[in-house]
């Protein structure tokens, strides 16, 4: 379902980025990078009001010709971006939301690993498999 | 216009101006041609009115026309073909570049420079916030129009080249100037003819171009008078005539050319034409070289990298700058000659005056009149209300209208009204109002027209009306209504989707975006611009995307990444459009956002594109930098991609290096050089073995650095240097370092010797997934010759370097540089290269960098064989500097708080004059030995240098392992081969008998004092080795006493004959595997028997029994068959073995595996007188068990003994040192023996079906009587855990000699006949003489009391023995001197036959000096039985 899943550090460099191998990887990198502007915009718009009760899920960041880009920001300002094929109309907002939640919990597991150095790129098999599951499911 | 920032209002106004046609007679044309101008061109600079004009609208309100501009063009101007338009536009864009000279990464975005590169470097950590500030500051500070010059140029050209369309009249001709020269023969007729011509053009229908606004076009008659050669009178009269004919408002006499063209250029005249003519050329600051590059095709032929997403394969597009503009009579070949050469400033004023006159008197009244006319028509037709009504109805009528309209749209898109259609009249009026800046009226007219058109479903017209309605709404002063952006959107959509007219849509979008920007609606503007990008025009898409990107960055919260992304898209489109410079600029700007942010894939892509574009633009430095960047970083690209990058890099690099004449070689990025791991080795590469000879291991690069080992060697060297310097180590002593690495101390300049190689090991790492090939790898150095033989302070020679390729061979006689022809590094491999330098002169050398050619490894593809010839891979020459950072300093506070690094002089050796160089070879050097085995080996010393060496010494960690023999012994065979089957010992044929003795001083064996002789001087013939000389000397080895593998370090020290020269050392490390042989245990016992009279009277009296237990503990049953004990020798200062008292007859005792044998010996004290005088001398006594005596007092037996003895004594004697005085000492001394037993054995070993005889010796040091000593060092018992004690230990009790010890002071012995026959019947009393021998064992005087009265008290003894009595004196008091033996003759008296125990005398001993001490000793009497027989 997802064609690209990315985890971006607080400082806006990629911690993890993976896309469907058949697609053009570079393009997704560009897309994800560009979407950060929108994430920032949304966060700064929402963040002022009530920082505690901020909704982590940001919703659709922007649609491109072929893809929809969704965003999610953790409280520690780590961003998750999921790119979905626009042709896939069966996806509901709720499903995207649950994907993000799954991603977030897996990411938390990665962070809990005492051998993981925060700020390093994520190299975790379990995280990989979670992401693969998201990408495979209905693609 | 390019540089001036217009407001949006001005921009829109200037885009829609009244246009005036010009019809010129040939003569008039000739007049203006004198100024290199056509008539329209002549007027062009003066077309903007400086004063206000006025006109009245239909409601009689005065409209003020401010800053009106008119456009004057030749009537025969042809509209451009689409292809031409495209060419024109691309020229305009490519001709307009950001100012040269600025570095490429400085962003010139419209009116401001974003020095992003600076800021992003400075604020690298809290990066984004800083950026944001920068941008907000920049965007809030200046204009709203964020445009770039090339975009403005494009826009201007685009708008000018708009073809006149039927649905709007804005650029239709409103008036026509008819120009006739005053020199004409009949000017009036000429006017007539021109007027007719104009009429024909407008109304005949033959021409589709030009288009005219209104049927009755304003004709304006201009008489052009050339002042310099015309008749002014005539001109005036003609003008008068004209005024009468056409009315004053429609005529003008223009006088120009006040001076001759020949007037010198000295007079500085402004040239207002230049900026209007040949805009493209005037605006472009492009150097001719750069424009050449533009027109050149892409020379880079590469495999197109497949997955780059935005393939940058640029098709060669419109790049040539040939001005083929055919516009308004403008000559195709415009010369750079100054325009208006014949015009004075007065003439300029006249022209300005003329335009003003024309506009105010001619044009504006004409427009006013027409507006009134049209208004009247419209009002009379009262169509206004009708159309209003129907339109409203249609618009709001019902839900089905949109569908219907969509369906109809398609049909009606091409709808054309006839020119005189009433619907067009209102549009015409609106356009007129718009042109004279009456926007209110224009808006209402457009609005009405729009409704009309919509109701007719004339979509093109409607779109036009919508567009203009929006524009006029925007331009209305005071803004009574908001800008209707949706009008614009609808218009664009209609133009694009319905009418398929991209040009109009584009124009509309340009205006709309401009307006939106002016209203700070950047995101809308960006969206609009992005929407306008399409596949049909790359140039437009590129420009619009760039503008959109600028919009993103100008937003209130700038969207940097969107900016960057759209810049990339724009760059891509630019490159597709052939605008390489712009493409490069775009990518560079985008790069600033992506740089160093971890988005490596994107970064690599941008870098790659930048590299390519830079290369095609002949900016090779940038190209190389960009490619370099891709390669240096740990790229995550796949291997094929990397290899493509690499090949492209090499290609670019090669072409650059070929073209440039730069002397210094550039730095190469690949492979990575780990400078810190560089190692430097001074000296030759060692031959490790040469036949039988085994070279000293010394130091070599293959050896890993080991801190402990280094420490060990340094200590050894310090020892040997201390010995060489007579006991003191020089203050500045530094251990010699042959191999410098990051672990060694590199603070001082290392010393290298001339004619000895310097080997530098560099570590390369290939970060790529493709193999790299290096060729002609060598070192780059700098050398300053210096003669060290001359006094210091001399002028150092000129520094030389082998940097220049040509000089390499020439410099080989100073320093030969080794070149490795080929060196391949596999993918992601780390590899070392060893490069050698051989200096031939003394001086100071600096190794600077590594020189090599970098290339790719050709893969052997099966497919390539047929088609491609196997070409040599591209190689480029370059260097990489070896920059080694020294260790971090951490001593002072300042150094601790800051990060400072010390110097590292690893690579800066000083080449010193020749030094001796020693090579050491070992011959017959074993690897395995039995414990205690003696083996003779040979060592060869070779001086391979041209300088004599001297002072050869060796230091070792195991001095007991080897000996070179003492100087006195020279009986050994001279060559190693001769000695092969001989015993290592010196032997003499002697039958076994009493031990032969020999006195030897330890000093003979180089042992002095108690020091462990770690340093041994090596006896050299003549004290040194001459150049090239070799010397073989024997070396004895003795297997270590402990089994196992032993690491034995030898450090050979030698020095030059010259004074002040440094010493040198040579290291050798040997491994010896020792296996178990024999275990010898020995015990010494006091013997009670005194030496017999006569036999050994002079021996001093006391003797001992020595029991030697020998056990074969060898475990390798296969190898060693049996051991023979050949000889037992003793060595001591006080004792010697005397005889063998072994009971068995088996003298040559053999021991098979696990067998055990016992030997008994009697030892006697050495002669005291000799012992006194030569206290330091040892007595060696040999007791051979076979027929061959080994002289143990010579080399090698004694050597090893002394080395061994020292070793053990030091260990054992230290604790007993304190108890020397007093009784205890004396008493202890008494029981001390210092007897060393040397057991010499032979082992029969079968090896390869050959029997070998091995020899060896084992040492046992007997120290105390009765205490067993062992040859095999006892394993120290593992220290048990000691309980932690909190109370201090009780002080040890004052050591008092125990009874047992005291009892040994005096030895007693009864001498009597064993049996005595006595005739009791004859004589009842039997008297037997008994001799009691007392001997003092101690070194002190002893008082002895002998009491004979004592009776055995035990009842058993009474039973067994009968009673007897001693006769005579019953108590004796004696004093015994040290070692004195006294005999007492006693008499025992027996009464009957029987067995008696004579051992009843009690002996009490007391130290003579220790007066207070009462007698303490009781001689435990042993039973001494005597048998008395009765005869």
From TrEMBL, chain A:
Signal peptide: none annotated. The keyword Transport applies. GO terms for cellular component: perinuclear region of cytoplasm. Keywords: ER-Golgi transport, Transport. Pfam families: Sedlin_N (PF04628). It is found in: Cytoplasm, Perinuclear region. InterPro entries: Longin-like_dom_sf, Sedlin, TRAPPC2L. The keyword DNA repair does not apply. It comes from the Eukaryota. GO terms for biological process: endoplasmic reticulum to Golgi vesicle-mediated transport. Belongs to the TRAPP small subunits family. Sedlin subfamily. This is Trafficking protein particle complex subunit 2-like protein. It comes from Electrophorus voltai. The lineage of its organism: Eukaryota, Metazoa, Chordata, Craniata, Vertebrata.
From TrEMBL, chain B:
Residues 277-286, 863-872 have a biased composition (Polar residues). Residues 1070-1260 form the TPPC8 third Ig-like domain. It comes from the Eukaryota. Pfam families: Ig_TPPC8_1st, Ig_TPPC8_2nd, Ig_TPPC8_3rd, Ig_TPPC8_C, TRAPPC-Trs85. InterPro entries: Ig_TPPC8_1st (IPR058541), Ig_TPPC8_2nd (IPR058538), Ig_TPPC8_3rd (IPR058540), Ig_TPPC8_C (IPR057651), TPR-like_helical_dom_sf (IPR011990), TRAPP_III_complex_Trs85 (IPR024420). One of its GO terms (cellular component) is TRAPPIII protein complex. Residues 702-930 form the TPPC8 first Ig-like domain. Residues 1305-1406 form the TPPC8 C-terminal Ig-like domain. Residues 277-333, 858-907 are annotated as: Disordered. Residues 891-907 have a biased composition (Basic and acidic residues). Residues 931-1066 form the TPPC8 second Ig-like domain. This is Trafficking protein particle complex 8. It comes from Electrophorus electricus. The lineage of its organism: Eukaryota, Metazoa, Chordata, Craniata, Vertebrata.
